[in-house]
Amino acid sequence: MRDDPRLPTSPGFWRSPLRGPWFTSVLGVVLLVGITVLFVTGLVSYAAYNPDLSPVNDKTPDKGILGFYLFAWPTHPHWLYRLNQGVHVTLGITLVPVLLAKLWSVVPKLFALPPARSLAHALERISLVLLVGGGLFEFVTGVLNIQLDYVFPGSFYPLHFYGAWVFIAAFVAHAVLKTPRALRNLRHLREGREGEEDGLVSPRPAEPTVSRRGALWFVGGGALLLFLTTVGQCFDSLRRTALLAPHGGADPGSGPNGFQINKTAAYAGIDPAEIGPDAWRLVVTGRTGTVRLARAQLAALPLHSSALPIACVEGWSTSDQWWRGVRLRDLAALVGYDGDPPDLFVESLQRRGAFRHAALSAGQVADPRSLLALYVNGEELSPDHGHPARVIVPAAPGVLNTKWVARMTFGDL
After folding, report:
1. Is the N or the C terminus of the chain less surrounded, counting Cβ atoms within 10 Å?
2. Could you read off the pLDDT of 151-189 as tens digits, one per residue?
3. Coiled coil located at which positions (predicted)?
């Protein structure tokens, strides 16, 4: 039955003449570089949330040793998170055709019999199953999260985080086993020689309809198309080209507040009556007690301006917007922290969605560009951009720039 060409367990079932060491090796080397960059930028993005700072920032509380690398997220340069997440998401989308082509090229190995010829072969097969399953899981959950159509059960953050570690463990094991052969095959390709036999060449190949170089050009063209229709979400001037990005296309409005929005006031469940001038008060708590401030009182305090972008975990970002408001460190001084300010816990009026609360580190509070913003681009914040007041911090993920701020607590978290 194993050699019955009608069954996928037979090498003769897989007849495409494209499969072979060269095609697989080229795709493998591209993925080796690309997935390494994806993994590193993903870890950096996770660190930007500063999950060790406070439980409200930590969506993976059982991470244990997997959080060994976490570090205090900096505020310089102010575009750091924008760059990191733009690379992570755009590269991930761009690699989809390469990943699919790679999986297609090695699919005969998933059906090969016997399942294990030796212990080493069994470990290789297990790593291959984890590699394929983990790769598909990470790319599918990532794409669903980017497109704001996440349908997997459970929170995206722990699923994607733990899935990434499972996938990268299998990826490293596979890379250690296969990279030397892939590099030898590429060297043979340059020299015009045949690559090493890897069990992927069909014993009864069909007539070719396209060359291997043509197939690689096809895969590369698909990757380039995805790149061109995604990367624009990171640049205002190219946003109309981001056809596959949820925040692509035209700006959502005009005027000073007419730039990209993630959560609208309606989506977040903001009651217009709560943010009116007669109802809204900012509650600031610290070493010396509690201060309550109306918006007019905040506006009467010394105001400062900062040019900062909004950058989202989903990969989209805005150009620098001009924010004006009260420095976070000045608000800390109002409640007894005249020197170095402490950490800050921020609470929002938001009723729906994640990150209704957020924690900021002392370093983020101390940065002179970190504001409780009242204005943007010379105009009062619109309700969708956080009126009556929102946090804006350099290099922080967008969800940590809390909108519709109601309470700020300075001190140990």
Report:
1. N
2. 667 788 899 999 999 999 998 888 887 778 777 777 766
3. none
